[in-house]
Input
Amino acid sequence: MIAGMNIPLLSQLRFRLFLGALVLLSLVLLFWQQYTRSEALPWKHNAPHDIPKSGEGSKPSIIQVPPIPSIPAAPSIPAIPSVSATPSIPSIPSILSIASTSSSFAEETSIQPHSTLEVPSQLLESISQASQYFIDYPLKSSQFGELGKRLQILGRWIESIEALSYNSTSTQSIELLADIEKTALSLFPFLKNPLKPENTHVFTDLRKSHEHGSKGVVIPTGKGSFRFACQLVSNLRDVLRSKLPIRIAYAGDGDLPIEFREFITKLAADVETLDVLKTVNDDSLELANDGWAIKPFVLLTSTFEQSMILDADAVLLQAPEVIFDNHSGYLETGTLLFHDRLLWQGAFKERHQWWEKELEHHTPSPALAKSLVYNEGYAEECDSGMVVMDKSRLQTFLGLLHVCWQNTLSVRKAFTYTMGYGDKESWWFGLELSGANYTFEEHYGAVLGEIRGEGKKTKVCGFTIAHTDEKDNLLWYNGSLLKNKAVNDTLFDVPTHFMIDATWEKGATKPDMSCMRDGKAQTVSREETEIIQASVNNAKKIDEKIAEAKLA
Output
């Protein structure tokens, strides 16, 4: 028995089966290593985001299989312990060995199409056993870090089938695909499509539903934020002249009735609706009852391969195409996130202790290594009013699944929304734990509003948080076109100044402005002012139309 672990008899037997499988697998791979020393296989792979290509014109590389890790001695089985209602889940090192082996095999081996070379049967058997282990020991709501590890293993299996299984009708491909599907569905029951309950390939079909090369904007809204969603459509289409398709996402007819959907789709060209509940199973989600929770599922179910999700009350000062086409951080990692305000340093120690616990034995990503929130004890890292993701990148897609899991009903009630404020922290946390790369904007949230004071006492005060591009130009802000939507729903505002990288003074109550001091007050440019003013003018007209349609 592993020291300090109470392993049920069944688990111990399974553990020994794993070890036996690994011994056989080692023999197979040793034979494989000898074979590849005499048979050079050219490098070829169909997932360019995940595996680097050889240099052009280079000779085919001789495949180097990594050394086989030493196999620990099988533990002896002690007397049968008393049965408990909820046995502890043993941490079985062989599972990680299996994952590592399958990953190494995929990375080091390249099979040409129509090749007769087969994947070692022991590798398939080991993956099947690991898959069954995941199913037999489902995760608890608290196991954020463990889910990240399982997703990394699942990713390696997917890389294996993409690298090795060119013949989709082969027995090996079918077996490996079935294990991937079973594992994915056991981790994420919400993937079971309610319109296709008999479908056994929901994971694969979901990935295929993302149209290759497509880009678009998705705006989740219900009746409560409908007004702002309409104003945002006008901001994108009429003011910024964005040509990207727009999808209005909701959770069932009760969330956004048909008359609302018909109204907003008539505001501009290429605006359609997306009912998330037609793709995911809502039994464990209850998305219509929580405005935050729907957001990652909207991104997941959108058919856009590259998707930008926007809160309904967001206001853009540059067209979304700027990010999709030109933002170097997004193009490098496939995900762009935005920072929240730097506030309340040292006030949320329990939150930080929880993050550190779940990230134990995890190597921080470049983004996390630079985080002032994580490393210096501030409160909130992410403003999720805009999130941009390229779902064609496997690790990004798997990281998004982690974010979705964090926003399921049981998990968000017990942890996500108690340890953080709504969905905010679930985005970077899910990507980080899943081993996916991501980019944060360079600066933490800025203030956008009006200037107060003079000289060294100059402040910029407002009710909105602003975000900048890579050249420090204003990109977007949250909070709507209203001066303070929480207090007055008719008073619009055209801000005049903003401040970056200064000290926040948080307003005590909703009617109170928040300010930044000890920084440089910058003037909103003429072009930016014109964009905001035009958006305000259009918003007033849209409000009148909503009132006429009796949708207010």
